[in-house]
Amino acid sequence: MAEPIQLSRYIESFVDSSRSPTQQAASLEAIASLLKNNQLTIETLVREMEGYLTTVDNIIRARGILLLGEVLVRLASKPLGDATIHSLIGFFTDRLADWRALRGALVGCLALMRRKSSGGMVSGSDAKAVAESYLQNLQVQSLGQFERKLSFELMECLLERYPNAVASLGDTLIYGICESVDGEKDPHCLMLTFHIIEVLSRLFPDPSDALAGFAHELFEILGCYFPIHFTHQKDEDMTIKRDDLARALMLAFSSTPLFEPYAIPLLLEKLSSSLPSAKLDSLRYLTDCTMKYGADRMAKHIEAIWSSLKEAIFISLDSVLLFTPESLEGPDLPKNEIAAEALSLLQKLIVQNTKLFLDLIVGDEDISMIFNTISNYKNYHEIPLERKQRLNAVGRILFTTAKASQVSCNRVFECFFSRLMDILGLSARNSSGQPYFDESILISKRCNHGALYLSIEILSACRDMIASSETILAATSHTEETWKYLLQSFSPALTMGFCSAFICSSEGTHDAATYIGVKGLLILATFPGGYSLISKTVFEKILVMFVSIINEEYSKRLSWKLALKALGEIGSFIERYHESEKEPSYMDIVVEKILSLAFVGDFGIPFPLRLEALSDIGTSGRSYMLKVVQGLEEAIYANLYEVYVHGSTSSAEIVTHILKCYSDKVIPWVHCEKGFEEVLLQFAINIWNQIENSTHFNASQTNKKGVLDVMMKAMKLAVANCSEEKQNIIVQKSYNILSSSISFPLEELLLQERFQIAQEVDNSSSRDEWILSLFAAVTIAVHPQTHIPNTRSIVSLFMTTLLKGNVVAAQALGSMVNKLDLKSTRGQTSSDCTLEEAMDIILNLSLWIFDTNSSSSIQSKTISVHDTGLNDLSNGVGSCNSLQIHAILGLAWIGKGLLMRGHEKVNDITMVFLRCLQSSGRAGISHQEKSISENNYKLDLHNSVMKTAADAFQILIGDCEQCLNREFHAIIRPLYKQRFFSTIMPVLQSLVMKLEPLSRSFLFRASAHVIIDTPLIVVLSDTKKVIPMLLDGLSVLSNDVVDKDVLYGLLLVLSGILMDKNGQEAVSDSAHTVVNCLVDLTRYPHMTLVRETAMQCLIAISGLSHARIYPMRTQVLQAVIKALDDPKRAVRREAVRCRQAWASIASRSLHF
After folding, report:
1. Which of 65, 292, 765, 961: disulfide with 254, CB 3.0–4.6 Å?
2. In this structure, are 1045 and 913 located in the same domain?
3. Three-state SS string across 855-902, please?
């Protein structure tokens, strides 16, 4: 049991208002802990606190009651006896009359009222007593914000958890709630008040209940908040958003049908508001209220609602239709939210009050006027702009109406579809099933575009209605629906009408006719099987027509795109609805014909368009994609054979396009689908089989066409999307071919002299190079768990290949060190190695630079980087600069793999780069300083080595699409960029201060790469230290056109700093230096983007404190005046904005 003295000390600490909040909180938690651990009972605590709870000292009494309430909050799950709960709730109920101790009383009541039955609850009679005391004693609106919030939470709890107890209070309860919520403005409290009214309405559902007498008064309180106008900017209010308040108010509006006489007129009034937010809220509230008030109550408002809805739709929809391939998919909800909400509400109202609403739509004068308008204009582009907008609106209204239900669909067909057929001059079939028209006459005349458009909207709605409720329609298929009869009667004429529009469009008229013709035929072809409107013959003719456009009219871009999109949609429809009767026709006419495009070499259609058609048709269905993949792979293998054996340049170009299509379209689709992994496995294996069987290899010149590059990309993506099991199969296959085809045995690689290995690499055949590059691609893409055989030899092979500048080998080596195990695993052979062993090979073998003075023996232990062959990069006399460059690039990719996994040996590689950037250790230069003027060629080469070392930092920290990313399963340690930035930047800053100008320029280039590729949020956290380096870098890099891209990237970082509030504060101290630098960059001649961004940065700086920037005002304005004559418009535009921003500083000065 707790010691009384200790307990008294805790109580005194909390009650004493002079104690710190931390001490008070600690005392509270200590008391709660004693109670939870049964070291103290609640009865003992109350007895101990009796003096504090009943004292006449208002402050002590308030603190004591609050302590008891807070303790109960922390005992929510601790079981308490009924008598104890009854005694406590009685005490707090009485204390509600003590306004000086009200907070503690509210906290205590809430804590007890929220308890669950498992731990003991407040009884119904006690809850009623709390409600009565609440209504009698609390004047809620006179309280502070926190007490009001507690009061509303208590009332909410009473209504939700004890509805039967408080419902008996009747009028007293409702009146008290009205009084307490009226005039509330705090967002947190408003959320509670709206919910209280919602719950109160559910408490009295009967129209004859007590709530009926207060409905008007309650709604007057609610109505003044609509629409929500949220202006609070306090930090504590940011948790409450405007949308939260709007939704809570909407639920209160729709909580009872008793609000209908007041809510609907208010919402219709606000629907005519000029504020888009008010319109949108009105529509959303109307939708919710419509569903909850019921059809009978809404019937009296139908006419007013229709009038307002129609006006909102007419005004909000786009003025012109979009004739794009994307819109062929179907009339999705408009991008305009108001129009979308209005049409959604329209559909719900039609379902709810079908006859009343249909009568209004059928008899509407505005809709009738549009029908009269389209009768006067044959061509869509002849219709006036305002009438186009209304035509679009009427089309969406008819679509929404017809789709709502079968009844509404029948009515639309009866009243509107027949009228459209009359405008088009189309006739129904006669009794023998033949149409009453001459097809040749119909084709020759131009159909009415407006009527065809409205027909399409109605047809589309009917099709969607069938698709969405096919089970319901199947059950009533024995009844002859009006829409079905009319569609079947006019479908032949409509088919010819759409063909007529399409044929007329091909004569060079407008996009509208092309779009209308294609979409109309598409809709007719995609009615579900039981409701198909066209015969199999007509369906096949439509397919043939679209395919002929793909084959012959590729120069007409819109027609070609629309036809391809339509074919894709038909294919998707066939697969989605299992149209087995149509699938053979689609496969023979579309898939086979389009697939033949991949094999026809002299066909007129450009090859990229052929592949676009193939990929779009393939992605429309699984069965089609399997066929397309099979065809594409056959084309790939056939053309690769020509490339390998005959060195065919035309085949090289074709296979390059096909492989790009395979990588960009097929593999991503396979990745999203299930059950296609075997396709990728077979693709990779077949590529390896073909190159294995190509003993006569003549592809050395065709690599200029990019064949090998696209092959490597396709191989990487295919392998990356395979499972570990499948990857092991591919790796083993590729390794077997590599080991049997390479110019020297892998097993003997580690035993040969470096010069001998390099000679053999130089003497390797082009076939060997292709095999090695493809193997490297496989290595890049595998999972870390995938086993690579003979790792030691593979590491050595990739190292030697680096000397020829094979970048993919360097990337593969980087991927290997990124994924190798840190420790030996069970089953590992002597030819395999761990990461540490691989790094020993890399760091100890002097394969990077051919140094005649170094030993060719392999050191078996790890030694310091300063003692290894890596020093040949900076100390080797007579070394070839190109080999140094290749070695640095190789080290960069290896270092990237280490850096991403967080391995410490990246520091050794980084130090090599830093040594290369220092003039004091420059390779092959120190003994030539006396004759430097006679040896400019060597100096240029040396500079290229230093530049490569600087650019190595971009490889280290930059993102890469070709390797070492999540797609290719790289091991990525979180925050690796941040750690590298914080480690390397102090080193670079220190070296810049010490070294001579030649080295400094390359150090600035290196630091620029680090700053550019580090996340901006990291740079912002260290802005004050980075800014000097960044500004010096901008100054130095602006001297050489070669650095323009790096300069622009660095300037973008400065722009990001200036756009951030914390960054502006850090830059403020260096404002003068920043302005000088930016002013110089406004005249940078080599890149427009640099001048434009410099102007934008100057605009951002104009927002700094007046005292900092006013002295530079004249300097900036003079630079801006010159920029106003810049030859590029983008720069002149930013110069105008900059002049306005800096000129306004004068007016700020006068005001100051």
Report:
1. 292
2. no
3. CCCCCCCCCCHHHCHHHHHHHCCCCCHHHHHHHHHHHHHHHHHHHHHC
Q: Are residues 985 and 950 in the same domain?
A: no
Q: Is 209 left (phi over 0), alpha (psi -120 to 50) or beta?
A: beta
User: Which of 141, 175, 195 is the last residue before a domain boundary?
Assistant: 141
Q: Is 208 helix (H, G, I), strand (E, B) or coil?
A: coil
Residues paired with 429 in a beta bridge? 435
Q: Which of 110, 141, 172 is the C-terminal boundary of a domain?
A: 141
- Here the contacts of 620-624 (C-beta below 8 Å, separation 24 or greater) are 620/567, 620/568, 620/569, 620/570, 620/571, 620/572, 620/575, 621/571, 621/572, 621/574, 621/575, 622/575, 622/673, 623/575, 623/583, 623/587, 624/571, 624/575, 624/587, 624/591
435 has which bridge partners? 429
Q: How far is the C-alpha of 660 from the C-alpha of 598, rounded, in Å?
A: 13
CA distance 876 to 1121: 54
Number of folded domains that form the chain: 3
> With contact defined as beta carbons under 8 Å apart, do 150 and 110 qualify?
yes
φ, ψ (nearest 5 deg) of residue 435: -75, 150
| 181 within some domain | no
Q: Is residue 908 located within the same domain as residue 1031?
A: no
Whether residue 899 is found in the same domain as residue 985: no
Rounded Cα distance, 977 and 964, in Å? 14
Threshold 0.90, pTM exceeds:
no
Q: Is the pLDDT of residue 1147 over 60?
A: no
* pLDDT (mean) for 880-888: 82
In a domain, 234, yes or no: no
Q: CB–CB of 14/49 below 8 Å?
A: no
Q: pLDDT per residue over 181-197, tens digit each?
A: 999 999 999 999 999 99
CA distances from 644 to 591, 651, 655, 705, 778 (A): 29, 10, 12, 13, 20
Q: Is the dihedral of CA 609, 615, 619, 622 positive or negative?
A: positive
In this structure, the answer to whether residues 27 and 119 fall within a common structural domain is yes
Question: What CATH number does residue 1077 fall under?
Answer: 1.25.10.10
- Using alpha carbons, list the distances in angstroms from residue 92 to 66, 202, 1024: 10, 28, 57
Question: What is the average pLDDT across 58-76?
Answer: 93
3-state secondary structure string across 52-87:
HHHCCCHHHHHHHHHHHHHHHHCCCCCCCCHHHHHH
User: Which residue's structure tokens are 């030539």?
Assistant: 928
pLDDT at 742: 64
Q: Is residue 599 part of a domain?
A: no
- The answer to whether the beta carbons of residues 219 and 181 sit under 8 Å apart is no
Residue 429 φ/ψ, nearest 5 degrees:
-65, 155
Handedness of CA 938, 941, 947, 949 (dihedral sign): negative
Q: Is 1099 domain-assigned?
A: yes
Are 884 and 1018 within one domain? no
Average pLDDT over all residues of the chain = 85
pLDDT at 863: 34
Most trustworthy range by pLDDT among 4-13, 105-114, 916-925:
105-114
* Residue range of the domain that includes 761: 744-926+935-971
- Judged against a pLDDT cut of 50, whether residue 1072 lies above it is answered with yes
Q: Calculate the CA dihedral of residues 716, 718, 721, 722 and round it to 10 degrees.
A: -110
Same domain, 952 and 980: no
Q: Which helix H or strand E contains 932, and what residues bound it?
A: none
**Averaged pLDDT, 1007-1022:** 94
- Smallest CA-to-CA distance from 727 within 814, 811, 787, 666 is with 787
- pLDDT of 1009 strictly over 50: yes
- In angstroms, the CA 338 to CA 135 distance is 43
298 Cβ neighbours under 8 A, 6+ residues apart: 260, 264, 290, 305, 349, 352, 353
Q: Are residues 940 and 981 in the same domain?
A: no
